[in-house]
Amino acid sequence: MSEIELSAGVIDYTDTGGGGDAGGDKGEGGTAGGDKGVVVPVHGLGFDESVWDAVVEELRGDFRVVVPVLPIGSHRRPMRPDADLSAHGVAALLAEFLERLDLRDVTLVQNDAGTAQLLVGVRDERVGRLVLTSCEALDNYPPGIQGRTLHAASRVPGGLFLLLQSFRVPFLVRMRTSLGGMAKRPIPYALVRRWYRPLLTRRAIRRDLAAFLRGTEKNTYLEAAERLREFDRPALVAWGAEDLLMPPATGRRLAELLPCGRYVEIPGARTLVQLDNPGALCAELRRFIGEGQGIGEGAA
């Protein structure tokens, strides 16, 4: 893991290195010096960079893949107590991260949380292509029983700590009202332990998550949707075909809002498309990026 200090605190990230637009002159196809571009996958609440491992492994041979660990539950380093960790604050940190690493013409890939949408029309100058996989959007916030329960618990003293104790019990984790409803394929419990250890063991990490939940308004993504109408770069909405938490109808509505948007469904996948069907997701990403750049397998 690498680390970088941002205005809110130090965050970890992984970087496969090589490739990508590092600021040089762009040649034909829109990338610097013949490089194939940077892919930045963004995780959701209660996940870290490991949720993208299968995608990173499949794409790293052709793209530079950089995965930040955002301070929304599974981060290992607490943020400064006065940091803005609302959805807008976390989006600002993501934009700051792209700037500090000087990442340009990025393919930004969002899952579960709606963070990437909040950059559009605000600080999106480094985003060359936008990919929204099953995520919070429009009026679907907080999403489902899981989202509503989490938000309610964050507003009761000690409520978040008590709710999180359920992640110590594999049977409860597998329920549809928990992580079991977010993936069609069983999630290895070792991953669950990894994701939730910071929340279960550190009060400051729970404080950060509570700040996100309490600071994010219900209409956050409805307001962001208006700015999506002005996003004039390529956009792909790749939704889990069997998503229970983020209905495919929401994904179709998103694609209709984006002027250059295209909608596809990832078969055999719920919200965590990168776990359920990473091969199909990567194929769509290669095709999508290749359409704009005419590179490698994506151009086939």
Distance between the termini: 34 Å
Structural class: alpha/beta
- Strand portion, in percent? 15-25%
Shape category: globular
- Widest sheet, order of strands: 1-2-4-3-5-6-7-8
Instruction: Report the radius of gyration as a whole number of Å.
Output: 18 Å
What share of residues is helical? 25-40%
Largest sheet, in brief, is: 8 strands, mixed
- Average residue-wise pLDDT: 91
Order of helices and strands: EEEHEHEEHHHHHHEHEHH
- Compute the number of helices: 11
Question: Total number of β-strand segments?
Answer: 8
User: Spans of 5+ residues with little confidence (pLDDT < 50)?
Assistant: 20-34, 294-300
Structure keywords:
300 residues, alpha/beta
Protein described:
By secondary structure, this protein is an alpha/beta fold. It contains eleven helices and eight strands. Strands 1-2-4-3-5-6-7-8 form an eight-stranded mixed beta sheet, with helices on both faces. The radius of gyration is 18 Å and the shape is globular. It starts with a strand and ends in a 7-residue tail after the last helix.
Give the topology, please.
Elements: E1 2-6, E2 9-15, E3 38-42, H1 53-59, E4 64-68, H2 87-100, E5 106-112, E6 127-135, H3 144-154, H4 159-164, H5 170-173, H6 189-201, H7 203-215, H8 220-228, E7 235-240, H9 248-257, E8 261-266, H10 273-276, H11 278-293
Parallel strand pairs: 3-4, 3-5, 5-6, 6-7, 7-8
Antiparallel strand pairs: 1-2, 2-4
